[in-house]
Please model this.
Amino acid sequence: MSTREAGWFHRVLLPPIILQSMIIGGGYSTGREVVEYAAKHGAAGWMSVLVIFVGFSLFSFLVFELARVSRSYDYKSFIRQLIGPLWPLFDLVLVVMFLFVIAVMLAAVGSILERTLGLPRTLGVLFTFVVVAVLAYMGQQTIERFKTVGTVLLYVGYAIFSGIVLTSSWDGVVAGLRASEGADVGAAAVSGVLYVGYNLSVYPMVLFCLYRQQGRVDAAVSGVVAGVMMTLPFLLTWLCLMAFPTPDVMAADVPWLEMLADAAPAWVMLLYGVVVGWTLVETSIGGVHGMEDRIDKNIDDLPRAIATRIDRLSSTQRSVGAALMLLTALGMSRFGIVALVASGYGAMAYVFLALLAVPLLTVGVVKIARAT
Model:
């Protein structure tokens, strides 16, 4: 599809769908990230939510527009114009971050599928391996369709899950929002910044579909849509968590399962397993697809005498590579969801703020202004 033929869906909605499918992974869909970056601040968590919405909207616009004006639709050319010779460092931390993300996903998938669909933990992880490998083999268009269907499922599911919890526990939600004692708005704002910081790692994964955007209006509208899509489920989860300040929910690996356990009928628990299982696969294939695209780009950038003798990754090689990445993440997943989200994600946030946020807000803004 050429740029001129691209409709509003591919120009405005597809980039937010890709981003949302990458962000709402193991930590987000389980509720664990919402606990760490908003709910633990109690009523002050509204500030985290606000900072997250503004941050995602702003950085989505900057990434979309800088990619458009500079025609940088692959990670290497995009990041090189921001941090120059430091780009290999960004490449390294990006791989580490996505191994963390996939590790959280694998730590969650076995537990969730076992409790909701009755699948043994090992079978749930094996199923994820197979689906990711097949999607890697099928290629970009299949991945885009898979993510689009997953987005529809996700929002239908979150509407049902949050509706059940909010209606059955509304008095607790109101009490939690009114309990302002000990609420630190400043700390909540910092948590919001850190949450946006480590999630900047997903932006290189959306570059491949930005070539269809035709102007600044596309980038601006798409950026705001991305902010809404990535923040709305976070907001709903935070509101639900306000009714459950107890350790059995706040310290759980999968807080959503604990909130739904008493209030939701059996079919809702099954739906949760399907929806979250789908989003976990989305996150995994997004990370794997992005890393394999980087390998292809590195091959293209080799000296011509060498590059002409090395083929780009075949469909079979992509499937094998996906399995190897998942095996590496599986070893990391033994640390558990709570430790990975609290420690691993937190440390990576500062790295991405330094390597991507600051350059975007300085060098990126200047480049966009000059292009105008």
